[in-house]
């Protein structure tokens, strides 16, 4: 039976500092940390309508059930019932954006399914779809990139 450690070997980061040179040593190790591959990955998603301008007030706000419905429909269309059974944890739903957690090995399939989904008609003419703003293994790095779009 294979463990996660067998699949992805850990990455070791060593931080050193240079001290006053002596005959025996030129540097001293302050700390050594082992960073293992995470079990979960995270995705930042946004509800958009391809036919409305981004400044339009017609885009409805998301709630947890609606976001889960969009994601499950996209996964079912792309991967069938196997995709619909993918474990998705809704971390935060705010306005038209949501943050989700998925198993690390399923992140690529999840992002592909959400990206390939053509959208869903809501209330007659309006088509809504989820857009992947960002995804990755480390939530801290993903949250830090949230304001990048406003800068560039």
UniProtKB/TrEMBL annotation:
<feature type="region of interest" description="Disordered">
    <location>
        <begin position="1"/>
        <end position="28"/>
    </location>
</feature>
<feature type="domain" description="Ribonucleases P/MRP subunit Pop8-like">
    <location>
        <begin position="40"/>
        <end position="117"/>
    </location>
</feature>
<dbReference type="GO" id="GO:0000171">
    <property type="term" value="F:ribonuclease MRP activity"/>
</dbReference>
<dbReference type="GO" id="GO:0034965">
    <property type="term" value="P:intronic box C/D snoRNA processing"/>
</dbReference>
<dbReference type="InterPro" id="IPR049128">
    <property type="entry name" value="Pop8-like_dom"/>
</dbReference>
<dbReference type="GO" id="GO:0000172">
    <property type="term" value="C:ribonuclease MRP complex"/>
</dbReference>
<dbReference type="Pfam" id="PF20976">
    <property type="entry name" value="Pop8"/>
</dbReference>
<dbReference type="InterPro" id="IPR020347">
    <property type="entry name" value="Pop8"/>
</dbReference>
<feature type="compositionally biased region" description="Low complexity">
    <location>
        <begin position="9"/>
        <end position="28"/>
    </location>
</feature>
<protein>
    <recommendedName>
        <fullName>Ribonucleases P/MRP subunit Pop8-like domain-containing protein</fullName>
    </recommendedName>
</protein>
<dbReference type="GO" id="GO:0000294">
    <property type="term" value="P:nuclear-transcribed mRNA catabolic process, RNase MRP-dependent"/>
</dbReference>
<dbReference type="GO" id="GO:0008033">
    <property type="term" value="P:tRNA processing"/>
</dbReference>
<dbReference type="GO" id="GO:0004526">
    <property type="term" value="F:ribonuclease P activity"/>
</dbReference>
<dbReference type="GO" id="GO:0005655">
    <property type="term" value="C:nucleolar ribonuclease P complex"/>
</dbReference>
